[in-house]
Every structure is written in structure tokens, then in C-alpha cells.
Amino acid sequence: xxxxxxxxxxxxxxxxxxxxxxxxxxxxxxxxxxxxxxxxxxxxxxxxxxxxxxxxxxxxxxxxxxxxxxxxxxxxxxxxxxxxxxxxxxxxxxxxxxxxxxxxxxxxxxxxxxxxxxxxxxxxxxxxxxxxxxxxxxxxxxxxxxxxxxxxxxxxxxxxxxxxxxxxxxxxxxxxxxxxxxxxxxxxxxxxxxxxxxxxxxxxxxxxxx
Amino acid sequence: xxxxxxxxxxxxxxxxxxxxxxxxxxxxxxxxxxxxxxxxxxxxxxxxxxxxxxxxxxxxxxxxxxxxxxxxxxxxxxxxxxxxxxxxxxxxxxxxxxxxxxxxxxxxxxxxxxxxxxxxxxxxxxxxxxxxxxxxxxxxxxxxxxxxxxxxxxxxxxxxxxxxxxxxxxxxxxxxxxxxxxxxxxxxxxxxxxxxxxxxxxxxxxxxxx
Amino acid sequence: xxxxxxxxxxxxxxxxxxxxxxxxxxxxxxxxxxxxxxxxxxxxxxxxxxxxxxxxxxxxxxxxxxxxxxxxxxxxxxxxxxxxxxxxxxxxxxxxxxxxxxxxxxxxxxxxxxxxxxxxxxxxxxxxxxxxxxxxxxxxxxxxxxxxxxxxxxxxxxxxxxxxxxxxxxxxxxxxxxxxxxxxxxxxxxxxxxxxxxxxxxxxxxxxxxxxxxxxxxxxxxxxxxxxxxxxxxxxxxxxxxxxxxxxxxxxxxxxxxxxxxxxxxxxxxxxxxxxxxxxxxxxxxxxxxxxxxxxxxxxxxxxxxxxxxxxxxxxxxxxxxxxxxxxxxxxxxx
Amino acid sequence: xxxxxxxxxxxxxxxxxxxxxxxxxxxxxxxxxxxxxxxxxxxxxxxxxxxxxxxxxxxxxxxxxxxxxxxxxxxxxxxxxxxxxxxxxxxxxxxxxxxxxxxxxxxxxxxxxxxxxxxxxxxxxxxxxxxxxxxxxxxxxxxxxxxxxxxxxxxxxxxxxxxxxxxxxxxxxxxxxxxxxxxxxxxxxxxxxxxxxxxxxxxxxxxxxxxxxxxxxxxxxxxxxxxxxxxxxxxxxxxxxxxxxxxxxxxxxxxxxxxxxxxxxxxxxxxxxxxxxxxxxxxxxxxxxxxxxxxxxxxxxxxxxxxxxxxxxxxxxxxxxxxxxxxxxxxxxxx
Lengths: 210, 210, 335, 335
Ligand SMILES: Nc1ncnc2c1ncn2[C@@H]1O[C@H](COP(=O)(O)OP(=O)(O)O)[C@@H](O)[C@H]1O
Ligand SMILES: Nc1ncnc2c1ncn2[C@@H]1O[C@H](COP(=O)(O)OP(=O)(O)O)[C@@H](O)[C@H]1O
Ligand SMILES: [Mg+2]
Ligand SMILES: [Mg+2]
Ligand SMILES: [Mg+2]
Ligand SMILES: [Mg+2]
Description:
Structural class of chain A: mainly alpha
Oligomer: heterotetramer
Order of helices and strands of chain A: EHHHHEHHHH
Protein name (chains A, B): Dihydroxyacetone kinase subunit L
Order of helices and strands of chain C: HHEEEEHEHEHHEEEHEHEEHEE
CATH superfamily of the largest domain in chain C: Dihydroxyacetone kinase, domain 1
CATH topology of chain A: Serine Threonine Protein Phosphatase 5, Tetratricopeptide repeat
Domain DhaL (chains A, B): 6-203
GO molecular function, one term (chains A, B): glycerone kinase activity
Strand order of the largest sheet of chain A: 1-2
Largest sheet of chain A: 2 strands, antiparallel
CATH topology of the largest domain in chain C: Rossmann fold
Distance between the termini of chain C: 43 Å
CATH architecture of the largest domain in chain C: 3-Layer(aba) Sandwich
Number of helices of chain A: 8
Number of strands of chain A: 2
CATH superfamily of chain A: DhaL domain
Shape of chain C: globular
Largest sheet of chain C: 6 strands, mixed
CATH class of the largest domain in chain C: Alpha Beta
Pfam families (chains A, B): Dak2 (PF02734)
Strand content of chain C: 15-25%
Largest interface: C-D, 71 and 71 residues
Distance between the termini of chain A: 11 Å
Radius of gyration of chain A: 16 Å
Keywords (chains A, B): Kinase, Transferase
Bound molecules: adenosine-5'-diphosphate, magnesium ion
């Protein structure tokens, strides 16, 4: 079993659906410790990414990553635009000219994406950012990469747990850092959208395997 | 029985007290159909008039009227400043060099004050202004001028009734006129302060006769 | 300060001294102005040349930058600051008039409110200088009738002070200045709307309650309710509610107009630009040619959210005077 | 438009198109500007002379007049308008950079927010023009630490754009322009406070709830809560809460400073002047000499009520560049 371009497209579409369902919640979280735009940003960006995939009709993983990444970079702005954009650009670069990704290849692409986010944003785990959901998710996926569905499921669980764990933290990166101690007691909004990204991946994997 | 300068001073002091007690109500009325300052305007003006009487120590009715009138003109601003100011200036001019006013002389002074307000503001009865309280009050005082206390009491009742009668009217003068039909259903704030003016006069008359 | 004032969302100290305190800050911030604190009159630090007509305006405070912010080269010589939303007293106007008279007469620019008219009138009666006055009454929301107080003076005041100020600065004699002032007053119309009320410091709470889904159409500049209350509508519809009554009242097609889309104080500039875009579309459709534009907070009602539109049919002389240099805190170009 | 947007007290149409619609109105109102609507870049209608360094700034919308209102002679060459409170994308910055490059290099003026920094960085990586950038990070409410995102860029941005814009207009080469920009960035500090939150159109309700008797100290410019919440206080105490942290952070006594008392959008000018009066008293007591002053809405948070104070220690060169002519919608003098 592997993710072909259509399945990758489903992943992005399912991510868009989840973001759209949770848009208000993401904005509410960003209102508490940020600037009240994370929901709107991600809704705009993921809708643009889905539209771009429809018009660009990529045939390789590289083209897929470029289409999604550039759509995000070009439409989101803010911190999450370059970060999620870089994630997909590096994901695509890792997949390269291939037309699909098996478990280990998908694991490598996710790892490349994560590394891109880290090098662009320079956050470390514990800084209360999307990194705190993405890092355990990629680790979990790698650990179980032989079975795509269960790897994706455990990545989704790890992302969600990582996101939940941001609640008590005092932010050191992103806008929430301006609040100092007051940032504690709230989930990081970017970590919640990252949980949605991995939950969408798990749902897409289930569809692929069905 | 007559009003001497001290009694006239008591009238102004009692007016100040009533205005200060009713300041919020006057402002609330002016909020509904004006600009929310009639309470503050009258409180400022009557306080200044009392202070002026203390420092100027007038010895004639003319000096009394000038002190009160100029204090009002100089500190109130708005529509009520020139109107109440003119009222007292003309009141004083009518009383002239005398040191007191008996019933008929007081009636004449009040009439002169009213005429000053009419010529300055050019409002007619029914325009929904202080004129609607002042006109019946002066009429009532004149009718009973032989007995100062009962004349002042019936003037106060007439002023209040005239004020109450402004409620259904559509304003044709003052700020409330800008509201057109929407001005109906509210008391005119200036007519309410005029009712206080005549209620203060009745209270002062009672003190004089006591 | 009582606990009630404590809770007001305002940058103030003693509620009774708001205007006095603001004038202290204004003088500290603006070295080109001088303030007569006793009379609460804002003056130019350097008076204009002798032999030129001087312009005095004023009114209640709470409309900033009007009027104090329009004192300076090419505009006013003095502005009298009344209490919030309360016209200044005759004493103030008289002090201003005497202070700025340069021997060529003084023009009083008076917005048509009973209080303003009477207080300026009393001052003119007492003044030693030759005084003329012009009444601004441009608000089409108010019926124009002989039997009432007539139309309110609103946004046109800003345009009139600029144009007439330029004429006076050029050295036009008093009768000329009056002629131009009357012409501007006759050729301008305004219409305003509010999304929220405003809070007068001395009152401590909003002047009126406006439900979350309603707005006021046909407001003045004193936080008063308007002619009618309607459901909140999107910007294109609001633009129609401003443009239509003005174009219904006078024919603005053909000649050039000066347009001002003015914020009432609480609406962000972003929204004012957006509103102007909608207004511009309607004006174009109606064949109105806009020659000059102002968008921003020029005559306000404290923190009221909302806007007003002013159109002035401007002849060549008015356009030339409009373009002349002006150097005031609120309006500046050409120097 | 859904019923929720209907009830918002805003002069807007489609909530998703607020920025686009506002740019249409801005272009209609300001003939001296040109708007690249596709990329949402505000440009000068007449580009500056070849061979001069161009200045590009930008950021989220909702801070008007920043940045679009500072495009023009003596200040910016282009401003990129992001969504409300969201930094522009690299595409926008790239389009702006290519449009204004006159062969002498382009300076990016970036407020220190993770999003702004990353988006401008990506654009700089892709640009063909020689690009340098300066970071504004003047907010003393935020801890200055290597391990965090560092201080936010707030009010100093306005002063920096003015001073550096004058240097570029004079023909200073890129390295000179960068040197002056770095000097300004190093010498300025700001502190802000809010009496109310603000409402982002897409969110439809205030970003945070603030009880009637509380205010936020140490806010930025994105409607976010501040460092701490305290009871509402009178203006003299608020002035201390702004002045003290700045003077604690750097020594402003001795040399001259440029002071800006900035409104956050929803506070009337009357209150801003009053606040400046209180600030001026404290500065005088602390021996700080104010050489130039700005009071008004220069960098806002939509309709937030509140204010911020910025102090820039200005050397002779900065003061000279400050006084140089500027002709933008938001700041204008000398022409
Ligand atoms: N340096 C960083 N590295 C990784 N993630 C970051 C960084 N800074 C911010 N983020 C993430 O971005 C999210 C905010 O995104 P968003 O609200 O769309 O942008 P902005 O903060 O510019 O408004 C934060 O919740 C956080 O997860
Ligand atoms: N032309 C007029 N003649 C008589 N009274 C008037 C006239 N115009 C207004 N008033 C009175 O003045 C009152 C308002 O006074 P006030 O609120 O102090 O002044 P302003 O209207 O300038 O704010 C009105 O309620 C009305 O009674
Ligand atoms: Mg955000
Ligand atoms: Mg009133
Ligand atoms: Mg008034
Ligand atoms: Mg943002």
C-alpha cells in the first residue's frame, strides 16, 4: 500500500475540511494568546491549496508539494503561511519525481517537512508552537511506518497529544511569547491545526486502504 | 411681604440644589433628544451663579440679575446659557435699583425675564422648549401676585404642568428639532430645569414668609 | 474621581476638567499654537499680518480636530473650545475676537445650533472689532424650514474654514471673505450615520443605546440619535443612504465637487477608505465629478463609530483656494 | 452576507474582501497613489528618480495609516497590505520590491513578528534587486531575549519610515540608508495600553473580553491582550505606566527625543492630547527634552481604544531628516 498523487490530494482536501469545520475554534485559540486570525489564515490557505491541486494537476510528489506549498505561502501570510508552506515544499522535494510514497518514503517526506519548519521558524520543542505537535507525530509515524494506516493513526494521536501538552507551557516563539506568563493555560493554535493535518493524513490513509 | 436680595439669593441657591439633585435626570432627558449635557451645563452654571453672588454681594435687584445672568452666560454655553442668562439679566433690569421686590414687582420681573428668553431664542409656546414651562408659570404668578407664597406655588405647579405637556410634542426649536417625529414621547429637558427654577422660587417664598 | 468615572473607558483624569486638560496637552504638542487657558481659546503662536481679516470659529469640544486643529496659516486665527458638545460662551468668543483682530475685521464661522448662534451673537454684540458672521447649515438629514431651528452645521465647516481661510490669508477684505463664505455655505451638503453612540465624559455612559443589529441614519455631530434607526447594512447600502439624500437635495452633476468622507471618531481608517470606494462608485454613476477628496477623521463625535459624507460644488475660485497652502495640525499642504 | 456579519458594527461589505475593498477606496481617494490590486501593493503614482534606494514596508492591515498611508515623497515607495493583522505573503513583497527597484537597491522595513520576518525573508531570497532589511523591535513591554521571538515592532516604525525615507529621497546609497535605519531602530522604544479590545472583521467579535473596569498594559498592535491587566486608572497614572518602562529601559535624558503619542484607533483626539499633556509633564520631570512631537492615530489596532508612547533619541542627523519634506496621506509637511 502507498499514497499516490490522488491520495495525497485527498489528504489536503480532508485537511481543508477539518480546518473549515474548526475554523472558529482555531481563531478563538488565537484570540486568547495571538491575534485572532489563525482560523481565517488556515481556511484561506487550505482552500487555495485544494484549488491549486485541481488546476495544476501534479503528476509527481515533487509537483504536489510545490503546488500545495506555494499555494500556502502565497495566500496565508502570517507565521503559518511560510511554515506550512515550507513543510509541503520540503515534503515534495523529498518525494521528488516519484508518483507515490510507500510507508518509509512517506516517513522520510514528513521528516523533511518537519525539518523545513524547524529551519524556517527556529523553534524548539517546548517553545509552544506547531513543532510540539509535529515532532512527536513524525516520530510516531517513523516508528510504525511499515503499516501506513496504523502509522498515520498513531501519528495523529501523537500530534493531538503533543498539542494538548502545549497548554501549560509559557510560549517562547510566535506571538504568544509576547504574553509571557499569561500564555500558559492555553493551547497553541498552530499545534491544533497540526493535529488536524495528521488526523487528515490518518483519514486519507484509511480511505487508501479501504 | 417681599423678596429682598438675600431671598433672591436663596432662590438661586435652592435652584442650584435642585439642579444638582436632578443633574443626572436632566442629562438623561437631554440624551434622549439632545446631546447629553443639560445636567452638566445647569449644574456648572448655577454653581457659578451662587459663587458669583457670594463674591459680588449685590445690593440692588439690578446688580443681582446682572451677577446671576452674567455668571450663567459666562459659564454655561450651549442654548441654556444665553437663555437663562438673558432671563436673569432682564429680571434684574426690571427690578432696577430697588433692594427688594413685592408681589407685583416680582411678577413684572419674571415677565421681563420671559420676554428676554423669547426674544433671544425666538421660540413659541408649543415648540417644545423651556418657554412651554416658563410661559404658564409667569401667567400663573401674575394671576396671584398679591400673595407671594401662593403665587409662587401656583407658578411652580404651572411650570411643572407645562413641562409635562411637552412630552407628546414634536420639537420645532433647539436640538430636539433635528429628530423630527422622534422627538415626541420625551420631556423637553429645558422645560424640566425651568420647573426646578419655579419650584425653587416657591421654596424661597416659603422661607421668606416663615 | 468617583468609582463611576474610574470605570469609564477614557484617557482622562478629572471628568470636569477634560477640555482644560486637553488644551494643556495640545499646547505642549504643538509649538505653532498658543492657548489662552483662561478663556480656552486656541490661537496661532505667530498672529497673521496686520490688515488681514481674521477668522474665529469654535463650538463644543469633542469634534477634534475641529476647531482647534484648524488654527494656523491659511485657516483659522482662533478657535474657542466649549465644554464637550456645548457651545462656547460669549466671553470666550469675545476674547478670541479681540485677540485676533488685525484691524480688517473678524469673521465668525458659526455652526447652526441654537446655542452656538446665540453665544456668538452675544459676543458680536459686545465686540469692538468689526464682526461679520457666516452660518454653516449643511445637514440634509434635517428639514430646511423657516419654522424650526433649521439645518445643523456639520462637515461643511471643515471645507469652509479651509477655503475662506485661504481667502483671508491672501488679504481679501471682509466683504469678499463674507461673499466667499456665503457661497461655500450655499453650495455644500452633508449626511451622516452612526453605528454606535458615543460617551460624553461628564455623562459617563453612551448617549443612547443602539442594539447590536441597528444603526442610526441622519445623525449630527453631538452623539445624538439620527432621523431614523434601521438594521445594520453592508457598506454599499450605507453609501446609498448617504449619497441619495444629498443628490436629492441639490444637483451635483456637471461641475466639480470637493468630497469629504469623514469618520465620526470610532471607525478605523480602513473602513473609511472602504466606504469612500462605495461612495465614489455611486457618485460616478450619478455623473458627479469629484475634483478633490478628503478621507479621515476631520469632524468627529468623540468615539462614535460611523461616518458622514460632505459634497461641495466648487467653482474655480473655491478650487484654487482649496489648493492654496495650509499649515494646521489637522490639515496641511503646500508648506 | 450572513446574519452574523450583518450585526457587526463595521463599515464593510464582504468580510473576506475588506482589505481589497479598502484598497479600491484608497486609490479612488488618493490620486498620488497607485494600487497593484492583484498583489495588494500600494505604490507612488510617480516613482522616485532612478538611482535612488527604494523603501518597501508592509504588514497586516488594520494599522492604518500604516503602511499604505506612508507611501509617497520622502517616505515609502511601496507598502504591502496583508490580510487584517496577517503579514503579507512573499509574493506581495516580491512584487513590491520589483516594482520599486530603481537600480540602487531596496530596503525592507520589517516589524519584528515571526510571520513578517519569515515572509519578507522568503521574498528577499527570491528578489533580483539588491535587498537589505531592517528590523523594528521597540516594544519594551516584551522581554528582550535571545531565546524568544524578541521584542515586537510597534510605533517606532512610523518614525523610522519617515527618517529613513528622507535619507533615501536625498539619494543616500543603500549602506548609508541601512546605517541610519539601524541607528533609528537602536534608539527608539515604545509602550502601549488598551482600554478596549478590537474587532477583527473575519472574527466578528472582540479579540478579548475586557471588563468595564479593567485595562490592558503592554499591548502590541494586533488587538492582543497585553502583559498585564489592571484596574482602569486616570490619565496621569496611565502616563506613568507608559513613561516609566521606557525610561527604565534606556536613558533618554540629555539629548533631544522625538515623541509620538499614538492613538490605537478608538480613542478620540481630545483624549490623546490630554494624555500627551500628562506624558509631557513626566518627561519634563525626568529631564527628557522633547524636540519634536506627534499626537494622533499613526499606527492603530482597528477600533481599539487606548494609546502608545514612542520615544526616539534623535541625533542631529535624525532631526534634520525628520524635518525634511514629506508628502504622504498620513504624514505631510514641507510640500
Ligand atoms: N517560530 C515558529 N516556529 C514554529 N511555529 C511557529 C513559530 N511562530 C509561530 N508559530 C506557529 O504559528 C501559529 C500562529 O499562526 P498564525 O496565527 O496563522 O500566524 P500569526 O502568528 O502571524 O498571526 C502559532 O500558534 C504557532 O504554532
Ligand atoms: N430657541 C429656543 N428657545 C427657548 N429654549 C430653547 C431654545 N432652544 C433650546 N432651548 C432649550 O434649551 C434646552 C437645551 O439646553 P442645553 O442642553 O443646555 O443646551 P444645548 O441644546 O446647546 O446642548 C432645551 O431643552 C430647550 O428647553
Ligand atoms: Mg495569528
Ligand atoms: Mg444639550
Ligand atoms: Mg450642548
Ligand atoms: Mg496574524
